[in-house]
Each structure stands twice: as structure tokens, then as C-alpha cells.
Amino acid sequence: MSVAKVGNIELYYEEHGSGDPLLLIMGLAMDSTGWLFQVPDFAAHYRTIAFDNRGAGRSSKPAGPYTIAQMADDTAGLLDAIGIKRTHVVGVSMGGMIAQELALRHPARVRGLVLGCTYAKPGADVLQRREGLVTQLGGSLSPNGDIQLDVAKIDPLTFFQQLLPLVLTPDFIQRELPKLMQLMSGALQYGFSMEAILAQVAAVMSHDTLGRLSQIKSPTLVITGDADLLVPPVNSDVLAQKIPGARLIKIAGGSHGFNFEMPNSFNRAVLDFLGSVRD
To answer: From CA 13, how far away is CA 191, in angstroms rounded?
Structure first.
């Protein structure tokens, strides 16, 4: 458990296991606790690094705006700080967007690439989900698409309660409440900032690698749940079609949070793929 100085911010990170490096990049609003069910399996095979993106967990939460490219540069800076020249990279949701930009902006750093439940560019379905969530939180969108919210009136627990049904299946939410409390604890107990989370939201909504995906040279696995409500699986179809040689796996019944809800299937697919990557 350490903190690295990267530019003018600090990034919290943890390392587990030994061997070839494997970097895990988490999604929107979550901290490294979101890898709870991956780290033990991955650390049995790799030097596994999980960290908190800017705006979340124990990392700095500077004022926005944020961009995905900026967070990819944060990630490269973290690798510099801990002495890793090249690594496997696994990113989910926003983390998958950061992983795309990392592979494009810093191609020599990325060995095997895993893009989970993510997109190259937000489509109409994603825009609709954002509008619905903003409305539920008592806000609105400006004519140019900016989120208008009184953040002082938003309780962090309310934010997560609105988000969870889009991320996990109802049965899992009812059955595994203690696990969910553990999942949310990291995001809430280290100075949750709604302003920073909205900066992350703006970053994911402006993300666009669609015209550059053919430039990704790293061996790539695109993986999603086929029941993802937040980022519909058609987005993974696009990624797999545009990235040269990419493999595509869809986990039957998998939600957006399938790495948390179905860790055995997720972990096995990722480890099998990374084990096949040859330099």
C-alpha cells in the first residue's frame, strides 16, 4: 500500500504477488477495492498492481475537467514511478477506456490488453443511461450536454443506490449485500468527492477512440457480459471488430459488474488469454 507522486497529483496503489507485471484499471467512481475478487487469483501468477484513478479512493481529487487521455498519462506516470517499463493491462468500464488510450498513447508500455465492459465512443444507449441517472439525482442536462447538478444535495449513498441496478443484477444485489457494502466502502471512506466523480463522468462521455482502434498493436481480449445494461455488449462487438486480431468473449448472464458478480468466469478468461500472449 503506497502512494506515487505523478505530476501534480498523488496516486494510491497496491502491489500483490510476483512475476511479470499486470496492471488493473478500475471504472468510474470506484477505487481499487473493485478488484477484490481478482487480486488473489491474478497475484498467484503475476506482480499485480491495482490503483485508484484520479478522483477516487485514496488518490488526489483535483478539480476538473478530466479527460481519459489525461488519466492514461497518469497511468503511464504511475508505471514510471514504480519502475515498470511494460505490463499486461486489464481495464473495466472507464478503466477500459483508459486502457485503450494507454495502448494508443504509450504503446510500448502495454503487453497484453484486456478491455472489459467498455466502449470506444458513447452511443445513443449510453447517452440515454446518463440522462436517466442525472434525472434520478435531481439534475438535468444543458443544451450542449453538460451535467447540471447541485452536488451539495447529493448523498454519496444515494448516488450508488441509483447506479447499482445498472451495474449488477437484482438477484445479486439482494443476495450479496455484505459484499456490496465492502465494495462501496473504499469509494466512500476516503473522502468521496461528487465534483470529482462528475469530472470522471464528463471524461467518459467525451471519450472517443473509434477512429484510432486500428492503431492498437497489443494482443487484445475484449470481454463483456451479455446482459450488461450500462454499456450494452454491442459496444464490445465494435471494439473487437476494429482492433486488429482482437478476441471477443461474452459471458452468459454477465452484468456490467461481471468481474465482481461472476469472478470465476472473468478471472479464468483473463488468465487464459494473458497466458497465451507472446512477445
So the answer is: 16
